Amino acid sequence: MITDPPTDDDEVQPQPSRPLLEARNVEKGFGDGRILTGLDLTVEEGELLTLMGPNGVGKSVLLSCLAGSTDPDSGSIELFDGQSPTEARSATSVMLQGQSIDPDLTGRENLQFYGDIHPRATGDWRSIADQLELTDDLDRPAREYSGGMERKLELTIALAVDADCYLLDEPTAELDLSMIQVVHDLLLEYRGDGKTILVTSHAPLDAGIADRIAFVRGGRTVATGEPSALLEALPPVVRVRGDMPPESAFLGGRLFQRGDEIRGFLSPSAGLETIENAVEREREHVTVDRDPPSYTDLFNYYTYVSPIDADGPSTVADESDRSDGERTERLEQ
């Protein structure tokens, strides 16, 4: 029997891959308060995702649920194509801020303890501790550590595991700018090796290394997208120097001070002239102009200004490829 050769229409189309981590409609509360109120989140394999939002919005609670340290009240969480967080523990490494270190042990003893209990622990902690400038303090009791030293020890413990997925809670908290850059370089190196990384943060600096950012507000994910796409989608940013404009002239009635300037977002119903007329232009050195958005502007918009969509998070797409250098070009803004 002779059959016709297959056409393009006959070819089997590849099925889209499932995310490495998927949380759907996750809710969690304590007492009478609800922390997570139906949060959705996906993390793709090999992706570095930064989960952003101010303190108290549920980022750490979500990470505890993803790590299997606590159970959500409702909703579903799956890792590695169908595993529960508890089932996936051997393939994940978790840093939960303030919950890993035994203060009665030295830094070295803490590292040895976690190295003994994780099935995929490695000896990489020595080089990681060196990079984080922690080696000289490893024989001190952890109770003597500063907050920044604790973060470095927690991060060393987490990264010294050959995991497929890293869940890192505020890894740059209480670190100085030079050490933040060291941490960023480490995370980009791991991501370059194909590792999947979820970082929680309330620091705009941590947006620059992300392949994708997800913003949390009101216990839900309110927006996701690549950093460049999220920046391009922002309303125009207005910068005022030399005077204090009225809040009513800006979107959401919110002003943000950075150094000697006031920043805010231009309302669709108001032009730049509206703000110019609201300040005392006759005063010397008063300027009103538009300014390219920074990651701080991005954080402020999705944390304090943007409306929350009742239908779920907005997704901002960006098909452009970016190098690591392009990801970090806005770090100082």
Mean pLDDT: 88
CA-CA gap between termini: 69 Å
Order of strands in the sheet with most strands:
5-6-7-3-8-9-14
From the helix content, strand content and strand pairing, which structural class follows?
Answer: alpha/beta
Runs with pLDDT <50, length 5+?
Answer: 319-333
CATH superfamily of the largest domain: P-loop containing nucleotide triphosphate hydrolases
Helix fraction, binned, reads 25-40%
Task: Tell me the count of domains.
Answer: 2
Largest sheet: 7 strands, mixed
Give the C-alpha Rg: 23 Å
How would you portray this structure in words?
Keywords: ATP-binding, Nucleotide-binding. The chain folds into two domains: 230 residues, Rossmann fold (3-Layer(aba) Sandwich); 58 residues, no CATH class. Helices cover 26% and strands 24% of the residues. The C terminus is likely disordered. It is globular, with a radius of gyration of 23 Å. The strands form three sheets. It has a seven-stranded mixed beta sheet with strand order 5-6-7-3-8-9-14, sandwiched between helices. The chain has a four-stranded antiparallel beta sheet with strand order 11-12-10-13, with helices on both faces. A three-stranded antiparallel beta sheet has the order 2-1-4, with helices on one face. The chain is built from nine helices and 14 strands. The chain is α/β, with parallel strands linked by helices.
